[in-house]
């Protein structure tokens, strides 16, 4: 099994879990990049996993499903209209002979979920490298609890997030902790990768423990402060 990506819009990643002949697609906000990938690799799409309801994560589903009607679409209740199967916290399912576990990860949206498959975490907009999603629900407690779930995952866990926001997240982090050498060093690495047109994802939980201020926030007040400052940050 390998995990690839195609890009969508300006900074979305559509993750593609692939076996020899088949793929599962995560959060296809656009259909065309996925169609191009399937044509190029001559593979069959057997499933779609959705993390949350935002258009840039779901708008490709309808067209993909029309071309691959046998593909199983799985997601939380907030995307029910796209789904063959609704999942919630603690659910497990098999797809393409892989076992997936569902984590409820609300805050960015009310029913946001993430998917664990072995040492891979598909977390949509609940966690980014160096950051986390904007709290559109205003439920800061929910998002803070979600970050605690991520913080308990193993160091080796690879984090496949929904957006390429790493550079601006680290620039923000340095405004809060200007002397943090881990963040400075990682920002240098990230800028080099971006200059080389490489993705900065997946990251790992180990790396995020070092550089993600949101994941490290010690209480709800600190998290709320960081998130509100981040909302104002223009980069
Ligand atoms: Fe989102």
TrEMBL record:
How the cofactor is bound: the record states:
Binds 2 Zn(2+) ions per subunit.
User: Which is one Pfam family of this protein?
Assistant: Lactamase_B
In terms of superkingdom, the source organism counts as: Bacteria
InterPro entries of this UniProt entry?
Answer: Clx_II_MBL (IPR035680), Glyoxalase_II_hydrolase (IPR050110), HAGH_C (IPR032282), Hydroxyacylglutathione_Hdrlase (IPR017782), Metallo-B-lactamas (IPR001279), RibonucZ/Hydroxyglut_hydro (IPR036866)
Q: Reaction catalysed?
A: an S-(2-hydroxyacyl)glutathione + H2O = a 2-hydroxy carboxylate + glutathione + H(+)
Report residues binding Zn(2+) 1.
52, 54, 108, 125
Instruction: Alphabetically list the UniProt keywords.
Output: Hydrolase, Metal-binding, Zinc
Does the entry feature the keyword Iron, yes or no? no
User: A Gene Ontology MF term for this entry?
Assistant: hydroxyacylglutathione hydrolase activity
> Which residues does Zn(2+) 2 bind?
56-57, 125, 163
Domain called Metallo-beta-lactamase: residue spans: 11-163
What cofactors does this protein use? Zn(2+)
Q: Which family does it belong to?
A: Belongs to the metallo-beta-lactamase superfamily. Glyoxalase II family.
Q: Which PANTHER family match?
A: HYDROXYACYLGLUTATHIONE HYDROLASE, HYDROXYACYLGLUTATHIONE HYDROLASE GLOB
Protein name as annotated:
Hydroxyacylglutathione hydrolase
Naturally occurring in which organism (per UniProt) = Facklamia lactis
């Amino acid at each position: 099994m390998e995990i690839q990506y195609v890009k969508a819009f300006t900074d979305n990643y559509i993750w593609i879990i692939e076996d020899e002949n088949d793929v599962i697609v995560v959060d296809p906000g656009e259909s065309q990049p996925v169609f191009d990938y399937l044509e190029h690799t001559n593979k069959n799409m057997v499933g779609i996993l959705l993390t949350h309801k935002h258009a840039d994560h779901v708008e490709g589903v309808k067209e993909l499903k029309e071309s691959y009607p046998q593909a199983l679409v799985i997601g939380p209740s907030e995307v029910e209209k796209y789904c063959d199967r609704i999942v919630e916290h603690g659910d497990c399912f098999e797809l393409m002979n892989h076992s997936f576990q569902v984590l409820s990860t609300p805050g960015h949206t009310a029913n946001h979920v993430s998917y664990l498959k072995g040492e891979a975490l598909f977390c949509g907009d609940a966690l980014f490298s160096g950051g986390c999603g904007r709290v559109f629900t205003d439920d800061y407690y929910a998002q803070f609890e979600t970050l605690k779930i991520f913080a308990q995952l193993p160091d080796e866990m690879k984090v496949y997030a929904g957006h390429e926001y790493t550079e601006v997240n680290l620039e923000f982090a340095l405004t809060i902790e200007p002397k943090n050498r881990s963040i400075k060093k990682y920002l240098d690495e990230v800028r080099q990768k971006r200059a080389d047109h490489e993705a900065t994802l997946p990251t790992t939980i180990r790396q995020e423990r070092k550089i993600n201020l949101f994941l490290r926030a010690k209480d709800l007040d600190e998290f709320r402060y960081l998130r509100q400052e981040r909302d104002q940050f223009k980069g």
